[in-house]
Design brief:
This protein is an alpha/beta fold. Helix content is 21%, strand content 16%. It has a ten-stranded mixed β-sheet with strand order 11-10-9-6-16-3-17-18-4-19, sandwiched between helices. Bound molecules: 2-acetamido-2-deoxy-6-O-sulfo-beta-D-galactopyranose (NG6) and calcium ion.
Length: 532
């Protein structure tokens, strides 16, 4: 881990800042349609990097992407001062595989332990022997922190052959976890807000742990005497719509059982504040040296239970309220950068781990009166789907003076953040590293050349149900609008340029195109890497 000595940190700080200062300003880099043509520096300045990875926020959920009913002034402000991408994708249409790909630069469908949605007792799905974005940053003298939703497994490691090294035990030091893959600190939620255990973990320990009240967690066999959603619906403040009927914590029944840890249990309505505070504290603590913050909000995942100051504020139910709450968290992060005078030295990326969803397991009204709200804009499908609504996500990058203000239609994916950040740090990737990651830094800096023509989409599971994007063409193995399931008997072929709503299956008309794309997908699957 990094040395904390004042001397080395101030040396690093000035080295970092001076590189930024002595880089000459290069004019006219961008000729991308209609964007700001001011001068932009070449990328070898070493900014702080903050990735804000929101949960389940759809393409159409934000004002800057066309939402009209719920206001998102802070995220819109970020977009106005940065670059807003219209063809950016999460590597998967569910959480764990997206996060795996983002941190490793490898598609999760290549690595079985990371391809599905993990539980609260799943072992770490990222190999501790590999490289991650956090390790890359640390090696370049950055302090790297993960704050918020983890959902990549904790305690024990699941190797590709299925062997598990150790059990997840919340009563002890919990490792391996974020600290074993390059983060020097972690504060957050082990799995999801709707999964047990409902406790925060800081570094390797449960926050507020009481040794006299040990924590047991189980997925499958009931454990302990706490009431459950199934047996005690009268104790609940929100009823499940499907699943989510195991242990009740704070009047909300979850996926998974837990007992004990009473003093450590989180309060759902305070989660956004608690996580945002941890992120802000990290920024304040590290203000004098380069840092990488991987900030994963719980919002707007289920259960959607906003703080009282947001409850009923949006006029569009709990889902609208937690969008406002998310926007408030982004506002806090931006304000802390301004207070620390770091806004111009920080690349801030805001995006979402998969597309939007309405009913995701609780009867919270989201699926009811939709009004003009379109969580995924005009795109078809929802979270879990191979249709665009499952994985085409908001993606905004702001780095004043470097990232030109504007809109980009370049095809990019979270899996590209690895090579992009490596380029930002001036590092060359080895052949084994980040095998599916393309350098999107030129696109961030406003250069017009394409980052990639092809991209593989994934719905979760191993070897997964996939789609291949190739220019405007898209071959989908499944035509489910929601959670992926199995491949259809015949694939679906669409042309997004003519048919952005993915309504017209051209497969029967264009058998050769189908065959070519199937072959290409099979090859991409077979080869260890897709990066050239
Ligand atoms: C699904 C859950 C859903 C959500 C999702 C994970 C059911 C019926 N559905 O299995 O509620 O928890 O997993 O979401 O249990 S994600 O954003 O973390 O991938
Ligand atoms: Ca998600």
């Amino acid at each position: 881990m990094l040395s904390n000595s004042v001397i080395s940190s101030s040396v690093r700080y000035w080295l970092g800042r001076f590189t930024l200062l002595i880089i000459g300003w290069v004019c006219g880099l961008s000729s991308f349609g209609g964007v700001n043509q001011a001068c932009f520096a070449e990328p070898s300045g070493r900014p702080n990097v903050i990735i804000i990875l929101a949960d389940d926020v759809g393409y159409g959920d934000l004002g800057c992407y066309g939402a009209t009913e719920v206001e998102t002034p802070h995220i819109d402000r970020l977009a106005r001062a940065g670059r807003r991408f219209t063809d950016a994708h999460s590597p998967s249409s569910v959480c764990t595989p997206t996060r795996y790909a983002l941190l490793t630069g490898q598609y999760a469908w290549r690595h079985k332990p990371a391809a599905g949605i993990l539980s609260g007792v799943s072992p770490l799905c990222i190999p501790v022997s590999g490289t991650t974005l956090a390790i890359r940053f640390q090696a370049s003298g950055y302090e790297a922190a993960a704050v918020g939703k983890w959902h990549l497994g904790l305690g024990g490691e699941r190797l590709p052959d299925g062997t598990i090294t150790g059990q997840t035990d919340y009563n002890r030091e919990i490792k391996p976890g974020p600290l074993e893959i390059g983060f020097s600190s972690f504060f957050g939620v082990p799995a999801t807000g709707d999964r047990t255990p409902c406790v925060y973990v800081e570094d390797r320990r449960v926050v507020g742990y009481d040794p006299n009240d040990p924590i047991q967690v189980s997925y499958g066999t009931p454990i302990g005497n706490d009431p459950t959603g199934k047996a005690n619906p009268e104790l609940m403040t929100i009823l499940p719509s499907h699943g989510h009927d195991n242990t009740i914590v704070n009047g909300i029944s979850r996926i998974g059982y837990m007992s004990g840890g009473k003093s450590a249990r989180w309060v759902d309505t305070e989660m956004a504040d608690v996580l945002t505070r941890a992120a802000v504290q990290f920024i304040e603590r590290e203000r004098n040296r380069p840092f990488f913050l991987y900030f994963c909000t719980h919002d707007i995942h289920v259960p959607r239970v906003p703080h009282p100051r947001y409850a009923d504020r949006s006029g569009h139910g709990a889902r609208g309220d937690v969008i406002m709450q998310l926007d408030g968290s982004v506002g806090e992060i931006l304000a802390s950068l301004e207070r620390a005078d770091l806004a111009k030295d920080t690349l801030v990326i805001f995006t979402s781990d998969n597309g939007g969803v309405l009913d995701d397991g609780y009867q919270d009204g989201a699926a009811g009166d939709l009004g003009a709200k379109r969580p995924n804009g005009d795109w078809r499908g929802f979270k879990g789907s191979l249709f665009e609504g499952g994985h085409r996500v908001p993606f905004i990058a702001r780095w004043p003076g470097h990232v030109p203000v504007g809109v980009s239609d370049q095809l990019i994916c979270h899996v590209d953040l690895f090579a992009t950040c490596a380029a930002l740090l001036g590092r060359t990737l080895t052949d084994d590293e980040a095998p599916d990651s393309y350098n999107a830094l030129p696109a961030l800096l406003g250069k017009p050349s394409a980052v990639r023509d092809k991209l593989v989409h994934h719905t979760g599971g191993y070897p997964g149900v996939l789609a291949l994007r190739d220019g405007p063409w898209k071959l989908l193995q499944s035509s489910q609008a929601g959670y992926g399931g199995k491949p259809d008997r015949e694939p679906m072929l669409v042309n997004l340029a003519d048919d952005p709503g993915e309504k017209h299956n051209l497969a029967a008309q264009m058998p050769e195109k189908v065959q070519d794309m199937q072959k290409e997908l099979a090859e991409l699957r077979e080869h260890r890497r897709s990066r050239p």
